[in-house]
Specification:
Layout: H1 13-27, E1 32-36, H2 52-57, E2 65-69, E3 73-77, H3 84-88, E4 95-98, H4 104-111, E5 117-120, H5 127-139, E6 143-146, H6 151-155, E7 168-169, H7 172-175, H8 179-193, E8 197-200, H9 203-210, E9 212-213, E10 226-230, E11 236-238, H10 246-253, E12 257-259, H11 264-272, E13 277-280, H12 287-295, E14 299-302, H13 308-312, H14 316-341, H15 350-367, E15 374-375, E16 380-383, E17 406-412, E18 414-416, E19 419-420, E20 423-429, H16 434-452, E21 455-456, H17 461-474, E22 484-486, E23 495-500, E24 513-516, E25 519-522, E26 526-529, E27 532-538, E28 549-554, H18 572-612, H19 621-625, H20 689-699, H21 701-705, H22 726-730, H23 739-761, H24 769-778, H25 789-792, H26 795-803, H27 844-855
Parallel strand pairs: 1-5, 3-4, 5-6, 8-13, 11-12, 13-14
Antiparallel strand pairs: 1-2, 2-3, 7-9, 8-10, 10-11, 15-18, 16-17, 17-20, 18-19, 21-28, 22-23, 24-27, 25-26, 27-28
Helix pairs in contact: 4-5, 11-12, 14-15, 16-17, 18-23, 20-26, 23-26
Length: 859
């Protein structure tokens, strides 16, 4: 499991630790100390050693602060944590304040007395935050004192060690742009701003610029590090050398000079000497950096992080990756929803659902050859009243059964190397009440209104936040969080600067990914939230219009619970859009399953023939001289090149018998809630299984039987001899076209079918030939090569990729499992089992064609 279920907050720790902190303040002539939930990088997600707020108070939320005075203690949280904080802190010690309406700077200006001295750690506050605190304190005659040592670090005796997660390189196929080109762009931007150097303090920016990822922060693939970019001269990266393997170090040294993090102050002092301008983002950079630059003779230039906006506007490869990740993740989520709907109320608890969902994601990632790397945050699994806690985190103490008559809220996400996902679905356990259906439909209307919205280019998030709340306000309801946040590409699930909220002042640009998640929460009863991720895209010109418009493409693909939708509350436009979305979800699921099922059938039939006529693997010349038959194919179970264990054909056929009924798609999720006609522009047609098979027969045969690129006359696994044993190679007769070659033809057939699926999973921008080359370089030389869709896919693959996925009225819950390969190119799992929940009968002529495809014998 990527997450644990230990108790996340302990109210009992506050009294003793606050007492010790007050003793420290008295000894150092201070009247108070401000502790934010932050680290030196000002990140939302921090390493365990930076959880100072949790250590002091017991509160485990991802945003907040506490002000400890000699006789008072005030904890500040936003609307997401108003319920959670009351469960996790001792309310006899702490007074809860609203972080948005009354932040610490405002509270200080209203309540502190003349002459009060408030300490703060300048590493944990941004330049803008420190300036606001300083101004508020000055208004009432108080003093803000920057400390050179943090008292929490001194009192925290068992503080964890710094994280040392290994750094990995993000492939060019997924990054979409060379780090060298990114650095050149940013250097030109610095020169245009008249700034010699700028400091990147956000690890997300460092990871994006240099095309690297790490594992220093839970659920977010970040390497904690700083960077100094230069308009001219070498760039510097400050990272612990223990995080760098040989490849990562060799890669980074071609792009920058590496330094230890402890050397950051010294390098800043050197670069600041002589009055040089140093760019710092006032919203992200620590106050310590500003004071250090100015103390070293330099000048501070307020410059927004130059990588932040380019990182937020995804390029073509990143968009293709995130689309693939959402198709994959939607398959796992759909199968989980189908499984959940078959369970009896009262038999499951919140932890079981979280565990099961991760299993589905792992399985789907393995089937599509893009493994689950992590969850993108601790899953919010809230049954009944727990669902009303907006950022609830289930633990062994709070774990609750899913009882009949309740709502269950599941907010989760995944990290795949090609994208980051975040999805929320609320489902009914048993029969919902009319109030639940009405509230759910209101939330759904808000989500649909954002999804259908068209807005002028340059519109900000704060300009459209109200659109998601219109239905709420008409019913006298609201929700205490923003409507959407930015999402990274295999980076943080909460990415700035884009967001849809009352405070979202950043323009929404094409290529930005945001969440769309309105909600409703009834304290002590239930919570409702529906979340899809959307991509900002330019839209076609509106006839008669004269303003360039943008809109949203919905990325998330998973059904809604039909039992909770009151169609009488939806407009016709909303019904048509919802019908089209459901049809698209079903089509994508069906298409993926059909391709993998066909691949499994091909392998199963070949395995059956192999059992009926055992292959002769060829004769080794040395053994033939002794009269021995050499039966030495490449081992499919052992990775050693010198392995001599025999390999036998698989003995189990895939369980792919046709099934009747709509197994795998529960009644609550079966079809869209309206029978209104769907405009054809919403649902493009898809090639049928029969047409795809005919296309393959006409134009895909050469691809199914071609030799492995670059393999020449012999490649490992084609013969019975070890290719690294030169003597054996020179004195052997390799069976290029014999029975052993059959398995490679089977593998190539599977490649052709998988390419259809991967045409959607790994869309590559046209003309980016180096992307395909990069993927080939990162694959083992003997494994199948990921070919460029434009040059090597079969006709059916190109057809499916070009026209999109849609036009299917009913579909499957999840793709079947695909066989994997060893480092020698041999299939290791020929069973490719497809359980009953992943099969769905179709209607009409399609059903007959599918049954023929499943049952007809191979000629």
């Amino acid at each position: 499991m990527f997450q644990t279920f230990e108790t996340s907050g302990d109210p009992s720790v506050g009294k003793e630790r606050v007492g010790r902190l007050r003793e420290w303040l008295a000894a150092n002539n201070l009247d108070g100390f401000l502790v934010p939930r932050a680290d030196e990088h000002q990140g939302e997600y921090v390493a365990a050693r930076s959880e100072r707020l949790r250590w002091l108070t017991g509160f485990s939320g991802s945003a907040g602060a506490v002000l400890i005075l000699r006789d008072q203690a005030h904890i500040f949280v936003d609307g997401r944590y108003q319920l959670q904080v009351r469960d996790q802190v001792d309310l006899a010690i702490f007074t809860v304040e609203n972080l948005v309406e009354t932040p610490p700077s405002t509270w200080i200006g209203r309540n502190l007395g003349n002459g009060a001295r408030i300490g703060f750690d300048p590493w944990l506050h941004t330049i803008a935050e420190a300036e606001a605190l300083r101004k508020s304190a000055a208004k009432v005659g108080a003093e803000l004192v920057a400390l050179d040592r943090n008292p929490i670090d001194e009192l925290w005796s068992d503080r964890p060690a710094p994280p040392l997660g290994k750094v990995e390189i993000q492939p060019l196929a997924l990054a979409g742009e060379l780090a060298l080109d990114k650095l050149a762009r940013l250097a030109a931007k610095l020169a245009a701003e008249g700034v010699a150097h700028t400091v990147l303090t956000d690890p997300s920016s460092v990871a994006w610029v240099f095309n690297i990822r790490g594992s220093d922060v839970p659920h977010t693939p970040l390497p904690l590090s700083f960077a100094i970019l230069s308009a001219e001269g070498p760039h510097l990266v400050f990272i612990d050398d223990r995080k760098l393997g040989i490849k990562a170090k060799a890669y980074l040294t071609q792009l920058c000079d590496l330094r230890d993090p402890a050397a950051l102050d010294g390098e800043l002092a050197r670069l600041s000497a002589g009055g040089n301008k140093i760019g710092l983002d006032p919203l992200l950079a620590a106050e310590h950096l500003r004071t250090h630059v100015e103390a070293s003779g330099g000048s501070y230039a307020a410059l927004a992080d130059p990588a932040r906006l380019p990182r937020a506007t995804k390029n073509a490869a990143e968009i293709a990756g995130t689309r693939a990740a959402h198709r994959r993740d939607g398959a796992a989520m759909t199968k989980m929803l189908a499984w959940l709907d078959r369970q009896k109320p009262g038999t499951l608890d919140e932890i079981v659902v979280v565990t099961r969902l991760e299993e589905f994601r792992r399985a789907t990632g393995a089937e599509t050859q893009m493994p689950l790397r992590d969850v993108s945050f601790d899953t919010i699994s809230g049954a009944g009243p727990n669902g009303a806690i907006i950022h609830y985190r289930v633990s062994t103490v709070s774990n609750r059964k899913l009882e009949a008559g309740e709502l269950f809220l599941l907010d989760s996400g995944a990290q795949y190397q090609d994208g980051t996902t975040d999805i929320t679905r609320t489902v009914a356990v048993g029969e919902p009440t009319e109030e639940m259906r009405q509230r759910y439909t209101i939330v759904l209307k808000g989500m649909l209104n954002i999804s259908m919205l068209r807005f002028p280019a340059g519109t900000r998030g704060c300009d459209i936040d109200a659109v998601a709340r219109l239905a709420h306000w008409k019913a006298g309801l609201d929700y205490g969080h923003g409507t959407g946040h930015g999402v990274g590409s295999f980076l943080s699930v909460h990415e700035g600067p884009q967001r849809i909220s009352k405070t979202g002042t950043e323009k929404l640009l094409a290529g930005m990914i945001l969440s769309n998640e309105p909600g409703y929460y009834r304290e002590g009863a239930y919570g409702i939230r529906i979340e899809n991720l959307v991509l900002v895209t330019p839209t076609e010109a509106i006839p008669g219009g004269d303003v360039a418009m943008h809109g949203f493409e919905t990325l998330t693909l998973a059904p809604f619970d039909r039992r909770l939708i009151d169609t009488a509350l939806l407009t016709r436009e909303e019904l048509v859009f919802l019908d089209a979305y459901n049809k698209r979800v079903l089509a994508v699921r069906r298409s993926a399953l059909l391709l993998l099922k066909d691949a499994a059938l091909r392998i199963g039939r070949t395995a059956q023939r192999a059992r009926q006529s055992p292959p002769s693997w060829g004769r080794c010349r040395r053994r033939r001289q002794r009269g021995a038959l050499a039966r030495r194919p490449r081992c499919s179970e052992h990775s050693s090149l010198n392995c001599r264990s025999p390999t036998s054909p698989p003995s189990v056929l895939p369980d792919i018998s046709p099934t009747r009924g709509e197994i795998g798609w529960p009644p609550g999720f079966r079809q869209s809630p309206a029978s209104a006609a769907i405009p054809p522009e919403f649902v493009p047609p898809i090639a049928s299984a029969e047409q795809m098979t005919q296309d393959d027969q006409r134009s895909g045969a050469r691809q199914e039987h071609r030799q492995h690129p670059g393999a020449g006359r012999h490649k490992p696994g084609d013969g019975e001899c070890d290719p690294l044993d030169r003597a054996a190679f020179q004195h052997s007769r390799c069976n290029q076209r014999g029975e052993h070659g059959r398995w490679h033809r089977v593998q190539r057939r599977l490649d052709a079918r998988m390419d259809v699926f991967e045409a959607g999973q790994h869309d590559v921008p046209a003309g980016a030939a180096e992307i395909g080359e990069d993927r080939a370089e990162h694959d083992d030389g003997d494994c199948r090569v990921h070919r460029s869709p434009s040059s090597s896919l079969s006709a059916s693959a190109r057809s499916a990729s070009a026209i999109g996925l849609g036009g299917i009225t009913r579909a499957t819950a999840i793709p079947a499992s695909a066989p994997s390969v060893t480092c020698h190119g041999e299939p290791t799992n020929f069973t490719a089992s497809i359980d009953a929940t992943a099969l769905t009968a179709t209607t009409g002529s399609q059903s007959g064609r599918l049954r023929k495809l499943i049952t007809r014998p191979r000629k």
